[in-house]
Design a protein that fits this description.
This protein is an alpha+beta fold. The chain has 7 helices and 12 strands.
Length: about 250
């Protein structure tokens, strides 16, 4: 088997047995242990659960979205056009456990989930031009799961922006994408594994587009870097009612 596809193959083997395999890379664990633990606890059902109906959704600014994602999402913050947040009003703080810390203590609301979306672009689907937007990032707050949160954010965004469809990717290191399918997304394709480089002892991830110290990829092995390939991603798309009308016209 080709080395680049090993972890993708391993993921498929476990999935065939109805098992979810998590690939936890050492650089991720060393740099973001709190986020890793929060995500694993959520998958095991041990996070604070907040019904989305108790939250309020509204647009947020770039610094607010950036800080939240930096503190709560495993992947790097990327540029986006639209940023939405879910806020839990103080009158509903009672649904949180007594040990859940809220700072500042006099806060009138708590930002519990964020979703960001790209600029619209024109794509051709079934021979029809579509105004497509990418769901770039979604994250719950550390140790929190907003039940129905992503669905509420998607509905608010679709009402405001009226895209023909929303596209996104599920990281197969952590997800099989079934949560997207439950929200009406359709699986389009699997992407090839991504290659990144790590130097043992440093544990800083470098992608081909962001190589260290002005080095080329050919020079990396001689400088102690090793190539690593993840499990790839799954591409999904959700056609809006407006997009469906375009397809049916």
């Amino acid at each position: 088997m080709d080395v680049p596809f090993f972890f993708q193959y391993l993921t498929d083997r476990f999935l065939a047995g109805n098992l979810q395999l998590i690939h936890l890379w050492e650089d991720v664990w060393r740099s973001q242990p709190a986020i890793v633990v929060s995500r694993l606890r959520a998958m095991a059902g041990f996070s604070e659960r907040i019904p989305a109906r108790l939250t309020q959704v509204r647009r947020i600014d770039k610094p607010t979205a950036g800080r939240f994602l930096q503190e709560n999402h495993l992947q790097v913050v990327t540029h986006s056009k639209y940023k939405y947040g879910l806020f839990l009003p103080a009158r509903y703080f009672r649904v949180l456990s007594s040990g859940f810390a809220i700072e500042p203590t006099e806060a009138t609301e708590l930002l519990v989930a964020v979703a960001t979306f790209s600029y619209p672009r024109q794509v051709i689907r079934n021979g029809v031009s579509h105004r497509s937007v990418e769901l770039v990032r979604f994250s719950n707050r550390l140790n929190v799961t907003v039940v129905g949160g992503l669905d509420k954010l998607l509905k608010a965004f679709t009402t405001d922006v009226r895209p023909d469809d929303i596209m996104t990717y599920a990281d197969r290191d952590w997800s099989n994408g079934r949560s997207y399918e439950k929200l009406g997304f359709t699986r389009l394709e699997e992407t090839a594994p991504n290659r990144f480089w790590v130097r043992p002892g440093k544990w800083i991830r470098h992608y081909p587009s962001r190589l260290p110290d002005g080095l080329t990829e050919n020079e990396l092995p001689a400088n102690g870097y090793i190539p690593v390939y993840n499990a790839g991603s799954v591409k999904f798309v959700k056609i809006s009612e407006l997009g469906l009308r375009r397809l049916n016209d």
